[in-house]
């Protein structure tokens, strides 16, 4: 929610004609019986997601969109029934150097510190089976704890501890998944179906689900959430044109996130809040709430009414643009991943919001996996850059210009015109959004959802409880 930069404002009119031309494509797609939506096709086939989604992904998308190689499907995890450990091999398990050594069937040996094993005991005494919280008192485990015996069974290792005869059991699959020396499977690997990043050629086959499916079954809801996971956004068709129905739709995912803009929004261009979202001026690509410590996860919009001109809606895949930036301007990618910027929301008299930490990079990565996990970019909500070193000032502006170049590349800009009855929802940590200026009366409603609550809902609907428990 903010004004575009002058540069972006200048760019917007020129992109409008291209956007108008493109508008015919999604409209045609929406009207065509042949162009059944991606998720609609999934629901009609099986919904054994996420593998089903990968299979059903149109060849068109596979050819033209970049699929990040580092994302994997939990559905593609190795579920072979082959044993992980050779039961007959008596030397597969040994204890040495305060560690339990376990040789896998492929010859790899994992080493587990004795203390680590005792600390990770998942017996009912040490780990609550329902709450999945640790009950073991780490600080009462002797630092030199050692096994009295280690017995391989058909499904895992049984360990009896020397000092108190406590019996622990670790399944081979759990040990294999959480092996850290060496790392065999990365437990921090992003879950779910492979993400598909896109440019505006996605316009001819937009991810879409039917309102009825989402409201009537968890399968429909799972398909909707998986669209958001894979593409970063999804349309929902056939939504009753009312705030009530839209609010119910949002609540299918999780409770609505309240902010200083309220909970569920129903707004026009009346400057109801001190933010340019509540005006009729053009807004360049941005993510919302960069000024929150925890930016809003999902953002939903439903255009209830518009009787004027303009007001085209822009979506940009930030992950795709980040990849392009990394390829074409690697130094700029590094700069925007390292240099952090301050932001604020202070448009209402009683509001003065700044995040903690006060400064955050535009490109945010997982500390362990190094994967890009969050785009945090609103050039208009940026506060004064007085924290940079002199040489950082040059580097930052140079990188910012490269980023803007990629974001405003026409082929990265997906322009659509929202319609009453057709809701859009997008991942605010991945997709940037904007709009062209408009005339006339325009009424929009929508909501934010917390990132964690969206991911939790997606995860529990798309992955088995056993799998999720083992991942912890
Ligand atoms: Fe916004
Ligand atoms: Zn235990």
Automatic annotation (TrEMBL):
Annotated Gamma-butyrobetaine hydroxylase-like N-terminal domain residues: 95-175
TauD/TfdA-like domain sequence ranges: 208-448
GO CC terms in record: mitochondrion
Pfam families: GBBH-like_N (PF06155), TauD (PF02668)
Gene3D superfamilies cross-referenced by the UniProt entry: 3.30.2020.30, Clavaminate synthase-like
E.C. no: 1.14.11.8
UniProt cofactor(s): Fe(2+); L-ascorbate
Signal peptide stretch: none
Top enzyme category: oxidoreductase
Record-linked InterPro entries: AlphaKG_dependent_hydroxylases, GBBH-like_N, GBBH-like_N_sf, TauD-like_sf, TauD/TfdA-like, Trimethyllysine_dOase
Domain of life per record: Eukaryota
Protein keywords: Carnitine biosynthesis, Dioxygenase, Iron, Metal-binding, Oxidoreductase
GO biological process, one term: carnitine biosynthetic process
Pathway: Amine and polyamine biosynthesis; carnitine biosynthesis
Protein family per UniProt: Belongs to the gamma-BBH/TMLD family.
Annotated NCBIfam families: carnitine_TMLD (TIGR02410)
Protein name per the record: trimethyllysine dioxygenase
Species this chain originates from: Mortierella polycephala
